[in-house]
Amino acid sequence: MSSGVQAMAPQALEVRGLSKSFGGIHAVKDVSFDVRPGEIVGLIGPNGAGKTTCFNLITGFYTPSAGEVRFGGTPVTGRKPFQMAQMGIVRSFQKTNILKSLTVFENVLTGHYLEARQPLWRTFFPGRAVRRTEHSVRESACRIIQTMGLTHRIDTPASSLSCGELRLLEVSIALAAKPEILMLDEPAAGLNSQEARTFGEVLKSLRGSIVRSILVVEHNMNLVMSVSDRVVVMHFGQKLAEGSPAEIQGDAQVIEAYLGGGKKG
């Protein structure tokens, strides 16, 4: 980003030399990039480029063969996914984790598990602290739902939501865990052009306010280029290019490998 203050701020997320092999296949090889405070960073590449594997390495679902992940200056390589979430690295998934039988409000309540988790004995003997936490969680859920533009659907079962509304609900659930950095894996999958534009505007409103930073894997190039401060391009498991959306769109290697090379993402 152009601001000198932000350029000097500590890195929210640092990925250094990250690699992962499955047998003899290098799914991710020597990938390095940063996600700085206040940024939205897009991670793109053709199918099979290694984007989701990279996500899984950063968030603890896979153990890297080599390399390091640091968050806020602290090494976090190899920590379990729940430990990553507790530290503030929260991700969504390509396959939804929404409970279709529950309402929008109930789904967002379930996302507050990191804050609301209580010892078993308090379930049977709830005291003032438990009631205070419950009140706080319910207020937080309402605020998130309002921010995501779903207030008019707050009591609607998730099974009745449109595809676009489901994507907004997925992000709402992730926000309930109070992430420092929000990591979104294909969040615009299935959205039409108008829904994708609306979703992009919501993402930009979250950055630097509700969440510090956002890292998004996405095939919708219009969305990525409209919301990202920087874009990282992967190809065959390696980082091919990194730069502003304008720089990436004008990069001959990227055009050949992805944007104009005939491969669909």
UniProtKB/TrEMBL annotation:
<feature type="domain" description="ABC transporter">
    <location>
        <begin position="13"/>
        <end position="261"/>
    </location>
</feature>
<dbReference type="InterPro" id="IPR051120">
    <property type="entry name" value="ABC_AA/LPS_Transport"/>
</dbReference>
<dbReference type="GO" id="GO:0005886">
    <property type="term" value="C:plasma membrane"/>
</dbReference>
<keyword id="KW-0067">ATP-binding</keyword>
<dbReference type="Pfam" id="PF00005">
    <property type="entry name" value="ABC_tran"/>
</dbReference>
<keyword id="KW-0813">Transport</keyword>
<dbReference type="Pfam" id="PF12399">
    <property type="entry name" value="BCA_ABC_TP_C"/>
</dbReference>
<dbReference type="GO" id="GO:0016887">
    <property type="term" value="F:ATP hydrolysis activity"/>
</dbReference>
<dbReference type="InterPro" id="IPR027417">
    <property type="entry name" value="P-loop_NTPase"/>
</dbReference>
<protein>
    <submittedName>
        <fullName>ABC transporter ATP-binding protein</fullName>
    </submittedName>
</protein>
<dbReference type="InterPro" id="IPR032823">
    <property type="entry name" value="BCA_ABC_TP_C"/>
</dbReference>
<keyword id="KW-0472">Membrane</keyword>
<dbReference type="InterPro" id="IPR003593">
    <property type="entry name" value="AAA+_ATPase"/>
</dbReference>
<keyword id="KW-0547">Nucleotide-binding</keyword>
<keyword id="KW-1003">Cell membrane</keyword>
<dbReference type="InterPro" id="IPR003439">
    <property type="entry name" value="ABC_transporter-like_ATP-bd"/>
</dbReference>
<dbReference type="GO" id="GO:0005524">
    <property type="term" value="F:ATP binding"/>
</dbReference>
